[in-house]
Design brief:
The complex is a heterodimer of chains A (96) and B (252). Chain A contains one helix and six strands, in the order E-H-E-E-E-E-E. By secondary structure, chain A is mainly beta. Chain A has a domain of 64 residues. A five-stranded antiparallel β-sheet of chain A has the order 5-4-3-2-6, with no helix packed on it. Chain A is globular and about 50 Å long. By secondary structure, chain B is of the alpha/beta class. Chain B folds into two domains: 37 residues, no CATH class; 188 residues, 2-enoyl-CoA Hydratase, Chain A, domain 1 (Alpha-Beta Complex). Chain B has a six-stranded parallel β-sheet with strand order 4-3-5-6-7-10. Chain B has a two-stranded antiparallel sheet with strand order 1-2. Classes of the chains: A mainly beta (96), B alpha/beta (252). At the A-B interface, strand 1 and strand 4 of A face helix 2, strand 5 and helix 3 of B.
Chain lengths: 96, 252
């Protein structure tokens, strides 16, 4: 990786050793995305892994947006949640 | 009342357009106005034919940067550009830049994608378009810079373990050449001027290179014009209209 920036690298890379938080892959409504859970069933989008092309133009699915991947009611098909293999397992991330 | 389904699939009641309503002298609300004019209460919102792409903060490449960085993620921007190119409703792209640079590979990938698009694209540099932001800025068909915006041009540096052998410097030179070739190929700046700006000493406090501000960027040929949002949008609309005219000419 070559960082080409006038910003001091010690500022850019501060906290590098702590790494990103636990991430989970969520599939719901035809979109697979990697989210960072912030509460049970709610996560912040880290990135979209696969989705129809038009979803990339929607602000609601941009990285950094919050998504709810818990089912709205018992009849609704739950989202598939898979803990990222690189992240440490966290029991409350797997509500289904 | 007519019952019709709206865009979201929900049924809503619509009045049947009738004769002119009685003029009772009262100021009519926007909803009443829309009933009179359009025969419906749900006023259609105008859909923009321009997609605005914002490139902010650090351009994130293959590695996730720590969370204190505001980042533009290339793995999201690249499919966005594909979607813009493919979507028939989008006729032009407005790129708004306020970036401090970032990953060379990711920045050049975004710049190459923008440059290869067939739809009209206009870039506007606000605040700053530094380092790898320079190739992204010049990748558009026409570029604007705000009067107070800056662009820092400086040499690429290597991160991590560096082996002190001549090959390291050759590699660094090759990386630099990629940026230089792209910038000189997509703007009016010549290679000599760009390298002169890149290796100038005494301008930056922590590095070698130059910070060009607004009018200077235009003077060196990096950017086409000093201007803001209004100028950028009107230029984009002109490019869209010209493209439409050209397409009609081809079909006839």
């Amino acid at each position: 990786m070559n960082l080409y920036t006038p910003m001091p690298l010690e500022l850019v890379l501060d906290g590098w050793s702590r790494g990103p938080g636990p991430l989970v892959d969520v599939t719901a409504g035809g979109i697979t995305m990697r989210v960072q859970p912030v509460a049970p069933g709610i996560g912040k989008i880290e990135r979209i892994i696969s989705a129809p092309l038009e979803y990339y133009l929607l602000q609601a699915y941009a990285p950094g947006q919050m998504v709810c991947y818990a089912p709205a009611n018992a009849d609704t098909e739950p989202a598939t949640v898979r803990t990222n293999a690189d992240s440490p397992p966290d029991p409350y991330l797997l509500p289904y | 009342m007519n019952v019709t389904a709206n865009a979201y699939g929900a049924n809503e009641e619509q009045p049947i357009p009738g004769p002119n309503p009685p003029d009772d002298g009262k100021v009519q609300s926007a909803a009443v106005e829309s009933v009179v004019q359009l025969g419906q209460t749900a006023v259609p919102t105008p859909e923009s034919n321009v997609f605005c792409l914002t490139i902010i903060g650090q351009i994130e490449g293959h590695l996730m940067l720590p969370p204190q960085n505001k980042t533009t993620k290339y793995e999201h921007v690249i499919p966005q550009l594909v979607a813009v190119e493919q979507n028939p409703k989008i006729e032009g792209l407005l790129i708004v830049l306020n970036t401090v640079g970032g990953d060379v590979e990711a920045g050049l990938a975004i710049a190459e994608m923008i440059a290869s698009m067939s739809k009209p694209k206009v870039a506007i540099v606000l605040g700053g378009g530094h380092s790898i932001g320079v190739p992204i800025a010049v990748s558009a068909d026409y570029t604007f810079i705000a009067e107070t915006a800056t662009m820092t041009i400086h040499p690429i540096r290597l991160n991590g373990l560096i082996i002190g052998v001549p090959q390291t410097f050759e590699y660094l030179d090759k990386m630099q050449e990629r940026v230089t070739r792209f910038v000189t190929g997509h703007s009016k700046v010549d290679e000599h001027t760009f390298k002169e700006l890149m290796f100038k000493t005494g301008e930056l406090t922590r590095d070698i290179g130059t910070t060009v501000i607004g009018q200077d960027a235009v003077k060196h040929g990096l950017i086409d014009e000093v201007g803001g949002l209004g100028r950028a949008l009107s230029h984009l609309n002109r490019l869209i209209a010209e493209r439409k005219l050209g397409q009609r000419g081809v079909y006839q």
